[in-house]
Amino acid sequence: MMINLISVAVGGAFGALLRYAIGLWMAQSTFGVPYFIATLSVNVIGCAMMGVMAALLPLMPVLQGAPRAFIMVGFLGALTTFSSFALDSFHLIEKQQYGVMGAYLFASIALSLGAFFLFHHLTKWGLS
Prior knowledge:
This protein is mainly alpha-helical. Helices cover 84% and strands 0% of the residues. The longest helix has 30 residues, at 98-127.
């Protein structure tokens, strides 16, 4: 159990650093893209990587336990939580739970954005 926690923590550190580095690189390079394009790019890359790993991991017993925790939860989870969202959605589709997946999709977007805007507003109101 402890090795899995350490694996997630180390993988998460690498994923978060890579996310930050990609954002800086895209903003400061010749691309000169807006921050939200960098975020979109990281989300798409992370989802692509999660798709590859979700297909490969069941075929590679050596990558179970701590290595899986490092890659899937730590590294890719910190690189982009959107990849975890995509994996969860994939599993629901795979189980043919389309209604649950639709509700999960809607709730994830609506509740997350709603919570952000509500608590941002409440915080600003509380500080004034």
